[in-house]
Amino acid sequence: MSDIRITNCHTHLFHSKHVPVNYPYWALRPFKRMPLLIKGLERGMALIGQQPVAEKLSRLYRFQQETQEGSQRAILDNLRQHYPSNTRFVVLPMELSAFGYGKPVLSMRDQHDELAALRRDPDVGASVIPFATIDPRADPRATELWRAIDGLGFKGVKIYPRLGFAPDDPRLMAHVYPKMEELGLPLMTHCSRGGVQGRTLSDHWADRYTDPEAYIPVMKAFPKLRICLAHFGGQKDWAAYVNPDRVTPFADEYRDNWQIKIRKMICSGKYPGLWTDISYTLFHFEDYVPFLRLFLGGEAPDQDVDEETKLLRSRVLFGSDFYMTRQEELSERAVCFRLRNALGEDVFRQIAEENPVQWLGEV
Ligand SMILES: [Zn+2]
C-alpha cells in the first residue's frame, strides 16, 4: 500500500453534555437514561430469532455509548483506532443552545475550550483540526466564534442551518463570512434533509435553509469563500436518485434532487468556492459507491476525463461523520478500505489527501 496521509474532513467528538437534556435523540429518548434497556431488548430479539432487529439495537447501543463518553478525548481515541496513525480529523462541534430545547450542561465556550485542549495534547493533538461553530441566534456578533479562531487557533467554521437560520442570515453575512474570506478559512455546513432540526421549524423551512441553492447569495457575495456542503445532498436524495420509483409521489427529493443539484452546480464552473463531502451518505456503501465511482470518472487518469469530471474530482472531500456512523453496519475502517478499493488509489488519494489540503487552505 502506498503511503498516504488521510484527512477525514467531517467528524464529531461532542457528547451528551453538549446536547440539551430535553432533546430527543432520534429514536433513543426512552433509552437515553437506560442504555442497558437496549442491551436487554437486543438479547430478547436475538432469543426470539429477530437477528436483524437485534443487530440494529446493538448498533444503537454502540452509538449511545459513544455519546455517553465523558470527554472528546475518549471519543477521539475510539475514532483513531480505525485509521492509520498519521490521519488527521476535522472536528466539528455542535451549538445546540438555541434551537428550542433549552441549554446543554456545557456552554459553547466550554466545548471550544475542551477541543482546544485536545489540540494541544502532546499525544493526539497533531491529529486534530479544530473547527469553531456558530448559531447566529446564540452568538449574534460572532464573539465566541472569533475567540475560538483568533484566540484558540481554530482552522475553520461549521454551521448547521437546519437548526433554524438561513445560510445568508444577516448576522453571518456581516460578522462571519467577510473575515473568513479575508483569512482564507473554510466553511463546513450540513446539507441533507435528515439530521437535527429546530424544534419549531417546519420541514419545509428546514429544507429551504439546507437547500444547496440557499448558498448562492453567500457565494455571490463572497466568491473566494470555500464552502463544503456536507453529505453530498444526503441519504434521502441519494436513495431517490438510485431508485426513481416514487414511494411518495410528491416527495421533494424526486422533484428537486440535491445530489444532482450539487453536481450540476460544481460542474457548471460558476461556483469555484463550492465543495462537497461524502460523509455518512457513503456508509450505505454497496448502494451508492458504483454511482460515486462513475461520477468521479472511474480510474481514468485526469488527462482522460472531461473538464466537468475533473472539476468534480477536485471538489469532493473524504469525510465520515463519525460517530453518527456508529448506527450503521460498516465500521469506519471497513468503509475506508472499501472506498479505496472502489475508487482506485489515485482518486482516493485525491479526495482523502490532496483535496482536503486545498479546502483547508494549507497551500
Ligand atoms: Zn456531521
Automatic annotation (TrEMBL):
It comes from the Bacteria. One of its GO terms (biological process) is secondary metabolic process. The lineage of its organism: Bacteria, Pseudomonadati, Pseudomonadota, Alphaproteobacteria, Rhodobacterales. InterPro entries: ACMSD (IPR032465), Amidohydro-rel (IPR006680), Metal_Hydrolase (IPR032466). Keywords: Lyase. This is Amidohydrolase-related domain-containing protein. Residues 9-361 form the Amidohydrolase-related domain. The keyword Lyase applies. The keyword Membrane does not apply. One of its GO terms (molecular function) is hydrolase activity. GO terms for cellular component: cytoplasm.
